[in-house]
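User: For my dataset I need records formatted as: sequence, then structure tokens, nothing else. Please produce one.
Assistant:
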Amino acid sequence: MILAASRVQEGPPARVYACNPALTALFTPRQPLIGRYEVCTAREPLGSDEGEALEALDAFGTAGEYKRSTLARLYGGARVRVVRQWTASGGRFESVTRLSPYPDATLTRLWPGTMEIRFTIQQNETH
């Protein structure tokens, strides 16, 4: 028992994400024709060597209901670190966009962690 309890965890710890319906409503399409969106956040920021640095409006796109001028003012010219990935397997497609730092739902504060926008389509999914 003592040996099992003292094992060292291999690799970095997994990111702990908390999903936020308010951010989902703000940064994703209101009623997608197919698939579903989910926006979650984590405390850990993206590393300076991950992804690319983009202007806020380029990073967040035009799909959401957020006020573009308010978001641009909030970032004040600072860049957003962005990583975009996708996977397809077993009838499931998932697109993931990770952004750091990210805004709160009121667009009044930037958090140093990471926002993850997930778009998922499951084969035979209907709305």
